[in-house]
Automatic annotation (TrEMBL):
Subcellular location: Cytoplasm
DNA damage is among the record's keywords: no
Any one GO cellular component localisation term in the record: cytoplasm
Protein name: Translation initiation factor 5A
Record Gene3D superfamilies: 2.30.30.30, Nucleic acid-binding proteins
GO annotation (BP), single: positive regulation of translational termination
Length: 127
């Protein structure tokens, strides 16, 4: 699920699709239009799910895709190793996600957590 927006509408901290991967925008630099060309934007972004840095260079008036990122809540049903079995609080669907290393001590059974869902991928996010 994605939608199309113009590059000039993007802001730091929002999301953008880079190489078909949902990313968080870390910085945007815009150049002034020249004598023979339009203004350009350089977007530095980090992947939500893989953590890789990506950059996009595009005309300010060009269109790009923005992923629809949903923040949902779930209850931890059980933990085995580094995998947590979760139940969505709205749909009551159960699924499993790996627990990131920095959240290991904060994810416990019976506790409610938040997770991100975008482009068919999910990730535990306790911010």
């Amino acid at each position: 699920m994605k939608q199309q927006v113009e590059v000039k509408e993007l802001k730091e901290g929002k999301y953008v699709l880079a190489d078909d991967e949902p990313c968080v925008i870390k910085s945007i630099q815009k150049s002034k239009p020249g004598k023979h060309g339009s203004a350009k934007a350089r977007i530095e972004a980090v992947g939500i799910f893989d953590g890789q840095k990506r950059s996009i260079i595009s005309s300010v008036s060009a269109k790009t895709y923005v992923p629809i990122v949903e923040r949902k809540s779930a209850q931890v049903l059980s933990i085995s190793g580094n995998i947590a079995q979760l139940m969505d609080m709205e749909t009551y669907a159960t699924f499993e996600l790996t627990i990131p290393e920095d959240y290991k001590d904060r994810v416990t059974e019976g506790k409610d957590i938040t997770y991100l869902e975008a482009m068919g991928k999910m990730k535990i996010d306790l911010r």
